[in-house]
Amino acid sequence: MVNFKNSPDRATEQALVSKGITDKNVLYALRTVPREKFVEESLKELSYTGAPLPIGHNQTISGIYTVALMTQSLCLNKSHKILEIGTGSGYQAAILSTLCMSVFTIERIRDLSLKARDILEKLNIHNVTFIIGDGTIGFKEYAPYDRIIVTACSPDVPEALFAQLSEGGIMIMPLEMSGAQNIFVIEKKNGKMYSNNIAPANFVRLIGKDGFKS
């Protein structure tokens, strides 16, 4: 586990690199987005630890390695339009915003969405659109998306999300199977789904029409 108590200094970066995070753009995003702005005051010293941290409403902010791994696995470029399911603290959306053209992020908990939007506004991040609603059905108004990232664990890939993924696009999400969670990279090729299990995971559940019911 990557475990640091301070800002993302050289040691933090070296630890991430040692675990396979080598994309220079991702590492730069992690250095420039102040993660401590997205956690509670009492937890700021733990901002860069490997473990998820509570953000209220029984939700969490993922550990920095998990954020880095999922971001790197999307293979982003500046032309990409991204759909994020599960805004949470807003940290993942902020990281993505530095690496792509636009981010559409959906959160079912209104208070979290509004708080995340306020933080990003204060950080002068303006290419993120916030939506309050059921993330399992996506946001078809701006589909298709080049990339989709789901930051809560689902029992299966929601059909609506796969339908809203561009041909040749990549989706990354945690899935729960037989009681265990793993992060999967999912690619859409000729309309078919190809998936690859890349890491074990520990996420809150994805609640919604095509997710868990509770």
Automatic annotation (TrEMBL):
Asked whether the keyword Zinc is assigned, the reply is: no
Pfam families, per database record = PCMT
Q: Where in the cell is it found?
A: Cytoplasm
Keywords for the protein's UniProt record, in alphabetical order: Cytoplasm, Methyltransferase, S-adenosyl-L-methionine, Transferase
| One annotated GO molecular function | protein-L-isoaspartate (D-aspartate) O-methyltransferase activity
Q: Which InterPro entries match?
A: PCMT, SAM-dependent_MTases_sf
Q: Name the GO terms of the biological process aspect.
A: methylation; protein repair
Q: Which domain of life is it from?
A: Bacteria
Pull one GO CC term from this UniProt entry.
Answer: cytoplasm
What catalytic reaction does the record list? [protein]-L-isoaspartate + S-adenosyl-L-methionine = [protein]-L-isoaspartate alpha-methyl ester + S-adenosyl-L-homocysteine
Q: What is its EC number?
A: 2.1.1.77
Family named by the database record: Belongs to the methyltransferase superfamily. L-isoaspartyl/D-aspartyl protein methyltransferase family.
**What function does the entry list?**
Catalyzes the methyl esterification of L-isoaspartyl residues in peptides and proteins that result from spontaneous decomposition of normal L-aspartyl and L-asparaginyl residues. It plays a role in the repair and/or degradation of damaged proteins.
Fetch the NCBIfam families from UniProt: pimt, PRK00312.1
The identity of this protein, by name, is Protein-L-isoaspartate O-methyltransferase
Organism lineage reads as: Bacteria, Deltaproteobacteria, Candidatus Acidulodesulfobacterales, Candidatus Acidulodesulfobacterium
- Name the encoding gene, please: pcm
